[in-house]
């Protein structure tokens, strides 16, 4: 899933959490949380690849620390510890959880319905996925990425499940435009 998929579908799925926690929610932090796992993990992957070579033992893929529940739990601790910044840390946590969830739903849909468009041998290895999400409790190893350079990543953007999720995400943002506008005003604290 790319940008609009994570923002729009993530918003649609997270609306109950947003509506039940209006005093602790600032939407801009939620939207940052929706993209943060990829911002962190893709940058660390390409920097590691550039300076330390590929595959690196600790960071062999584009879904590593930012795509773990322990990363979102870190924001839960911050949210519980800091009343003053609860409206920042709580939406960041919800955004990150929605990102991880959507990545794996997207993979499952891609492998089930669009396997012929994926690189040969692409599968969803459930134990590897769980090991990554629950790192380090099920083991220290992260999965290696199927896409090892930026060219691969751009080619990947043409896969059907990705542009379908981008269209759905864009539609979800459009449908929720009023909700975003209203809640931006309500949650605005700074
Ligand atoms: Zn991701």
**Number of DSSP helical runs:** 8
Helix and strand pattern = HHHHHHHH
Characterize the main sheet. none
User: Could you list the spans in which at least 5 consecutive residues all have pLDDT below 50?
Assistant: none
Give your account of this protein's structure.
With 190 residues, the chain is mainly α. It has one domain (3-14, 22-187). It has eight helices and no strands. The longest helix has 28 residues, at 86-113. The mean pLDDT is 87.
List descriptors.
190 residues, mainly alpha, 67% helix, binds zinc ion
Q: What does this entry show, briefly?
A:
With 190 residues, the chain is mainly α.
Topology:
Elements: H1 3-20, H2 27-52, H3 69-81, H4 86-113, H5 126-133, H6 150-156, H7 160-175, H8 177-187
The protein binds zinc ion.
Zinc ion binds next to helix 2 and helix 4.
């Amino acid at each position: 899933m790319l940008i609009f998929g994570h923002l729009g579908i993530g918003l649609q799925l997270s609306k109950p959490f947003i509506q039940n926690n209006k005093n602790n929610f600032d939407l801009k932090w939620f939207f940052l949380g929706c993209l943060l796992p990829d911002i962190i993990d893709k940058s660390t992957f390409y920097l590691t690849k550039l300076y330390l070579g590929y595959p690196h033992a600790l960071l062999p893929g584009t879904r590593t620390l930012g795509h773990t529940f322990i990363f979102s739990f870190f924001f839960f601790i911050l949210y519980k510890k800091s009343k003053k910044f609860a409206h920042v840390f709580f939406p960041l946590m919800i955004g990150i959880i929605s990102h991880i969830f959507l990545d794996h739903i997207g993979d499952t849909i891609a492998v089930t319905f669009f396997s012929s468009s994926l690189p040969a041998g692409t599968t969803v290895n459930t134990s590897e996925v769980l090991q990554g999400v629950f790192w380090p409790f099920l083991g220290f190893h992260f999965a290696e990425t199927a896409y090892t350079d930026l060219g691969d990543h751009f080619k990947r953007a043409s896969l059907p499940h990705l542009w379908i999720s981008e269209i759905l995400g864009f539609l979800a943002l459009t449908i929720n435009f009023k909700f975003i506008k209203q809640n931006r005003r309500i949650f605005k604290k700074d």
